[in-house]
Design a protein that fits this description.
Blueprint (H helix, E strand, L loop, with lengths): L6 E8 L5 E8 L2 H14 L3 E2 L9 E10 L5 H11 L1 E7 L2 E7 L3 H10 L6 E8 L3 E2 L2 H16 L3 E6 L1 E2 L2 H8 L1
Parallel strand pairs: 8-10
Antiparallel strand pairs: 1-2, 1-3, 2-9, 4-6, 4-7, 5-6
């Protein structure tokens, strides 16, 4: 819409069990969005924090998800490490590559040149430490994260949460 100005805003806070939550927002009305985000945190067992209250627990990294069928792990490793990637992990049927944010373009270009197509390539705030939660607290935290993600202005939600998926599924049923 003409005349509308959008603003990038970051909200930081804690969820159930002390999980650090980092929320990236794009809003045309910070005076509307801030109370909505604060209410969501409070209603679901969390607390909205001050700027920089949790950002120190996250690091901006490049992240690539490559289907294992796209190329062999050895080939992907050779391409990405030469381009400056930090790590390659196999998760289910995906090869997960991380790199410093400054190396993102180089790694992306190297994959493209090698004709290896990632299903996802993005800059993300990855936690430097994780908080292990029991099934009940994890379920509460996942609900908070899902509600934050569903907010119209929210672009990305990051958390330093770790839990047993099966235990949370059992708790929910």
């Amino acid at each position: 819409m003409p005349g509308v100005t959008y603003e990038d805003v970051v909200y930081e806070g804690y969820g159930p069990g002390g999980v650090a939550i980092y929320v990236e927002v794009l809003t045309d009305n910070k005076m509307r969005t801030t109370p909505e985000i604060r209410h969501t945190f409070t209603k679901h067992g969390g607390d909205l924090g001050q700027p920089n209250s949790v950002s120190w627990m996250f690091e901006k990294k490049g992240q690539f998800s490559i289907p294992a069928s796209a190329a062999s792990e050895e080939r992907v490793m050779e391409v990405v490490l030469e381009a400056g990637a930090d790590d390659l992990q196999t998760v289910d049927d995906m090869l997960e590559v991380t790199c410093a944010s400054s190396a993102f373009a180089q790694v992306h270009d190297a994959l493209e040149k090698a004709k290896i197509v990632p299903s996802q390539a993005k800059l993300a705030m990855l936690p430097t430490t994780v908080v292990e939660l029991d099934a009940k607290k994890a379920g509460q935290c996942v609900k908070l994260l899902e509600i934050l993600e569903d907010h119209d202005d929210v672009q990305n939600v990051y958390a330093n949460l770790s839990f047993d998926d099966d235990a949370v599924s059992e708790e929910a049923s």
